[in-house]
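Response to reviewer comment R2.3. The reviewers asked that we include at least one raw input/output pair. We reproduce the pair for Amino acid/amide ABC transporter substrate-binding protein (HAAT family) here without editing.
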Amino acid sequence: MGTTVSRRWALRAVALAAFMTSAAFAADPVKIGSVVSATGPAAFLGDPEAKTLKLYVEELNKKGGLLGRPVELVLYDDGGDANKARTFATRLIEDDKVVAMVGGTTTGTTMAMIPVFEDAKIPFISLAGAIEIVEPMRAFVFKTPHTDKTACQKIFEDMKAKGITKIGMISGTDGFGKSMRNQCLKVIGEYGITVLADENYGATDSDMTPQLNKIKNTAGIQAVLNPGFGQGPAIVTRNYAQLGIALPLYESHGVASKSYVELAGPAAEGVRLPAPALLVVDKLPADDRQKAIGSAYKAAYEKATGQPVSTFGGYGFDGIQILTQAIARAKSTDPQKIRDAIEATKDYVGVTGIYTMSPTDHLGLGTDSFRMLQIKGGDWVMEAK
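Raw output as returned:
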């Protein structure tokens, strides 16, 4: 009789503990904020980011969440509007009380939000490309995509190896396009390459033929570089083919997705660009450190969405992974402790690269994390010559 009663009390204690744990789990989430451009002109960047963040948070909660608590993703769509992005950033801090933020699809929206998170001392991991996001370095701001400067260096390494010394440039006038153009001009001299023609186009331009004709008619040019992202580079690529320009065309990592290939169509054949290993994960050797994580993310994303994986979703994946791992290491949701743990990220093998951050480096990637790709038959070919 005594044994039976003891067993009943033990079962009740277990049930009560489970109930209390469940109640606490449901009532006290770890709130992570995000503002992305899921619609608008940068939707092909922001949509896979949003889907990736939702997918990962769902998977994380299935495994028990963080610190014994569920994770709540508070997600807003800025439509590519910097003013909306700043408004949402303020809302995340003042109303939603997030402990950290992963988002900022474009350089423009990111730069608009940075002062908000810096003032509030809330960690912000950006998914945008420009180097200005992390240089000069800010205490609470980090990023996952390679910088535009690193992309320039990778492209110029490739050009130099091919004996290219004179080029034309046609850049977007958006935040990313301006920044990458400036970064390329800063480092190009180190590779013995000269810019003979320097054109640009606006975000809403639908025909870049006049600018490309100027480049075509400039004597001595051996290749053309297009620093840009969004739909502009696809238009440049189509116009390039229509004009019959036979010179090599280099694009930025800002177009490293199937969306660009589809928009540009057959004109994309032969285009070269630097990109993360994720785009060619199936072609990586078995001993490549990024193969396992890249393959797993690709399979999960494509199964969940029915869409091909993109590097932009990969930026979101690395961002949320770096953040949640930092929270787990910090064993705290205190923003300062989270910030410190993010900064201490070391040898994190992601789908974009292998990250090691520090008090002087809030990105932690070099040119070795880029793969030089070429488009052949509508697909990516690694290190094509």
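The first helix runs from residue 2 to 27. Residues 150 and 367 are 6 Å apart (CA to CA). Further pairs are available on request from the corresponding author.
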